[in-house]
Amino acid sequence: MAREGLRTLVVAKKSLTEEQYQDFESRYTQAKLSMHDRTLKVAAVIESLEREMELLCLTGVEDQLQADVRPTLEMLRNAGIKVWMLTGDKLETATCVAQSSRLVPRTQDTHIFRRVCLKYYEHEFMELACQCPAVVCCRCSPTQKACIVTLLQQHTGRRTCAIGECRPAHGRPPEKPAA
């Protein structure tokens, strides 16, 4: 279902003894209090619990696109216009929408850059992203979307067209995006 561009949700269960639960809770609490690599440690503890589970159900939801999105994107690409999708969605949702709109072909390799990318490697990120056939930036606020558009204009010297909520808050400079 995910290969077809559907957002998937897997529901499963696992019975734990009191001892297993206490062990998990202790490791989880310790990971949440960690000063270094907190996110990775929490994810590792959760992943350790997500084994040998009983599958209860599986769902697949298709994100409905507005009419004519696919042909419009195709016409833009055929005209040599690069399309970037800046969204507040999570990575998984953004990927599904990009594939279902055919902004990104299902067979195309994707590269994922984490938050530190624009914070420390702004120029390198823009160099690489501008060479890509399509770019999807997820978990962006409207202000961060505006910042990416501004960076793109500054880096390329070209015109951009931003559709949607891509305006910085009045009187404040744009914050760095979380691409």
Automatic annotation (TrEMBL):
InterPro entries per UniProt: HAD-like_sf (IPR036412), HAD_sf (IPR023214), P_typ_ATPase (IPR001757)
The keyword Transport is annotated on this UniProt entry: yes
Annotated keywords: Transport
The keyword tRNA processing belongs to this UniProt entry's keyword annotation: no
UniProt xrefs under Gene3D superfamilies: HAD superfamily/HAD-like (3.40.50.1000)
Membrane-crossing residue ranges in chain numbering: none
Name recorded for this polypeptide: ATP synthase subunit 9
Organism: Saguinus oedipus (Cotton-top tamarin)
Name of encoding gene: ATP9B
